[in-house]
Design a protein that fits this description.
The protein is an all-alpha fold. It is built from 16 helices and 2 strands. It has a two-stranded antiparallel sheet with strand order 1-2. Strand 1 (113-114) and strand 2 form a beta hairpin.
């Protein structure tokens, strides 16, 4: 099925090309897209991040310097993270808002538009970013019981956990306040359900992060269900909510949802594949045993043979030689199948865009798909 999607590509109105044609690199895609929406999304949540409350938290977080608390890495990412681009979700919401344009029901309110986007849709983009950032911060909570002496003093790590909880809650509270101010019941329901999906997805991730993950048996269909909850639901439902704010039809709302869902699935697959497709293989990268290439490799290999490979890669103290396991997965079909699946979701995202009129914004949305489905 995945191969058929790849061969078929996406053709039709507006000349969207198939994935085989490639596209510009990620940084260029983001830079050009930001110009189209007339808003530097790198500063999407700057108003909140520079508030007195978070400034005080930032001063406290400085106490963690010298430790290995993950909250420090998250904080650095707010300043500069060109590869993963923390502001991608808000940017996509703005682009799809502009690509859809005003509906016939909202033509009389076009004076509220700036660069072809309603002010309520810009607020929604900021809300989406705040929610995503809040959960990034919450993910920076460490398991105190698994800490090593080299990670930092226990009291500092406990303090870091408190800061992660408080600052994440603060961001989420601000997002919920802004969401209520949109005064749209359906939008509130959509984004609230996305928050619920995130909680459920992250709960699953945390339950699988222990050493007991060796006993897990996960299929690719289960993997996709879980990734939708933890990575795709927020963007998919935010794209749908943006169409609701402009009073677009149910069909257009569904197409926006499908684009957000499948593009973010491609983005997650692209991320999972990086340890296996990087041109420079000199660095040993620890990857999740529940990442897409590993899950697909397990399906092709069989459960017993997969556990045997893991055992063979284990050293003293049950530590895993990821380099050895990485080579074993590369030698199988998991990596190529994950690339096919990434492009399959990319093509489904492009197919959803066919319902939008040709425009710079639609082309930018397509370029984002091309960027996350490119591999060396």
């Amino acid at each position: 099925m995945w191969g058929a999607w790849l061969r078929r590509g996406v053709r039709g109105a507006g000349g969207l090309r198939g994935l085989a044609s490639g596209g510009p690199p990620w940084s260029q895609v983001v830079s050009e897209a930001e110009k189209i929406v007339g808003y530097p999304t790198s500063f999407m949540s700057l108003r909140c991040l520079l508030s007195d409350e978070l400034s005080n938290i930032a001063m406290q977080v400085r106490k963690l310097v010298g430790t290995k608390h993950p909250l420090l890495d998250t904080a650095r990412g707010f300043v500069y993270d060109s590869r993963n681009n923390l502001q991608m979700r808000g940017l996509v919401v703005l682009l799809i808002s502009k690509a859809a344009g005003p509906s016939t029901a909202e033509l009389s309110f076009q004076h509220n538009m700036v660069s072809g986007i309603y002010s309520s849709q810009r607020s929604l983009a900021e809300i989406t970013e705040l929610i995503h950032t809040a959960f990034l911060v919450h993910r920076g909570i460490v398991n105190i019981g698994e800490l090593k002496s080299c990670d930092g003093p226990l009291k500092d790590m406990q303090f870091g956990n408190k800061m992660a909880v408080l600052s994440g809650d603060f961001l989420l509270a601000n997002a919920c306040t802004s969401l209520a101010q949109l005064q749209n019941t359906k939008v509130v329901e959509l984004i609230s359900s996305a928050i619920g999906d995130l909680v459920q997805g992250i709960y699953y991730e945390n339950s699988k992060s222990s050493e007991n993950c060796l006993t897990d048996d996960i299929s690719i269909s289960t993997w996709k269900e879980q990734v939708f909850l933890s990575h795709s639901a927020l963007l998919a439902k935010s794209c749908q909510a943006a169409m609701e704010l402009a009073k677009h039809s149910a069909e257009i709302q569904d197409m926006a949802f499908q684009y957000g869902k499948h593009m973010s699935m491609s983005h997650k697959l692209h991320s999972d594949l990086q340890p296996f497709v990087k041109e420079s293989s000199s660095d040993t990268v620890a990857f999740s045993l529940n990442s897409a290439p590993a899950v697909l490799h397990q399906e092709f290999l069989g459960r017993e043979a997969w556990i045997k490979q893991i055992r063979e890669a284990q050293g003293k103290g049950n530590s895993i030689d990821y380099k050895k396991l990485q080579e074993a997965i590369k030698a199988g079909k998991g990596v190529t199948s994950a690339i096919d699946l990434c492009r399959c979701h990319g093509n489904r995202a492009l197919a959803a865009l066919e319902r939008f009129p040709p425009s710079e914004a639609r082309a930018a949305l397509a370029n984002i798909v091309y960027a996350v489905t490119r591999f060396p």
